[in-house]
Amino acid sequence: MVQSKTWILSKHFDGFPKDSNFELKLEELPEPKDGEVLLEAVFLSVDPYMRPFSRVRMKEGDVMIGTQVAKVTQSKNPAFPVGSHVVGHCGWRTHTVSDGTALVPIMSDWPHDISLSLALGVFGLPGLTAVYGIEEVLGLQKGETLLVNAAAGAVGSVVGQIAKIKGCKVVGSAGTDTKVAFLKELGFDEAFNYKTVRSLEEALKKASPEGYDCFFENVGGPSSDVALQQMKNFGRIAVCGSISTYNDSITQTGPYHHLTMIVKQLKMEGFIQSRWEHKHPETLNRLMAWMKEGKLKSREHITKGFENMPTAFMGMLQGQNIGKAVIAV
């Protein structure tokens, strides 16, 4: 018998999460049956989407949802040999018995000098989200100007770099001067701290007086309404997140300015990366090639210890991380 440590949702969040919303439990796991494997978590991910998903997809007592990189320690499934690594939606667990459904093997040619934790970041959901938002939703073209908010996060930092690879001007906003410096390191043309600028409207105009062709939206809330005013006619907006609203007790209903959308003839589209799941292998190969060529960089905010998952989750929601937030077991 193997014991798994699990974090459960002990009480639904009311506003910002608290320690009392989580409970650490032990779970006895059965031996794997034919076709099953026993997984041991190596790295676990905490992501903004977990906050709103907990509201609509979880009940009290459920294991917290989430993705992890895990090692196969026992196997009765030939597709997943002992010692191999997979990415799976196993939740906040140290060990999982799985029938192999929805497990994705790590690339067989994964470079030895690249941490497997990046399979949760630039080579995982954030990287895929960045590519599809830019290529499939925005159709970003060389010479265009792109605005990215939450630009120092797991998704935004990759978005900006890919836009530069494609020959675009990139403007990013972030919440600390350290994050702004990080964006400059990544090659953003302009970056500013939205918390310290005198006026967000002035900062956006200064960064790109001619306006913005595209906007990669991660934040939502009133600041995004200001950004819409700076879009060029026929501008495109890709909406993949609304982190500023996730901890609201009452869901916001706006504030996008409909008249601006009409007058400027803007196109706005929400999306989830799984829509293009059939393209994942090719997309991941391109991301890996860009990194090997030195065109793509990644930074991680690693928290050590499974017992610190709630702390890491709450810190991520407060914007404490630069790049991808990851827990190393």
Overall description:
With 329 residues, this protein is an alpha/beta fold. It has two domains: 2-120 and 299-328, Quinone Oxidoreductase, Chain A, domain 1, CATH 3.90.180.10; 125-274, Rossmann fold (3-Layer(aba) Sandwich), CATH 3.40.50.720. It is built from nine helices and 15 strands. The protein has helices at residues 50-57, 125-138, 156-165, 177-186, 200-207, 222-229, 258-263, 280-292, 309-317; strands at residues 2-9, 22-29, 37-45, 68-75, 85-88, 95-98, 104-105, 145-148, 169-174, 190-193, 212-217, 231-239, 267-270, 300-304, 324-328. Strands 3, 4, 5, 6, 7, 14 and 15 form a seven-stranded mixed sheet that branches. Helix 9 links the parallel strand 14 (300-304) and strand 15 (324-328). Helix 2 crosses helix 3 (156-165). The protein is globular.
- By CATH, the superfamily of the largest domain comes out as NAD(P)-binding Rossmann-like Domain
Termini separation (Å)? 20 Å
Architecture per CATH nomenclature, i.e. the level-2 architecture of the largest domain: 3-Layer(aba) Sandwich
Low-confidence regions: none
The top-level CATH class of the largest domain is Alpha Beta
The mean pLDDT is 93
Strand content: 25-35%
Largest sheet: 7 strands, mixed
Helix percent band: 25-40%
How many domain units? Answer: 2
Please give a quick description of this structure.
Helix content is 26%, strand content 26%. With 329 residues, it is an alpha/beta fold.
Task: Please describe the structure with a list of short key phrases separated by commas or semicolons.
single chain; 329 residues; alpha/beta; Quinone Oxidoreductase, Chain A, domain 1; Rossmann fold; 2 domains; six-stranded parallel sheet; 15 strands; 26% helix; 26% strand; globular
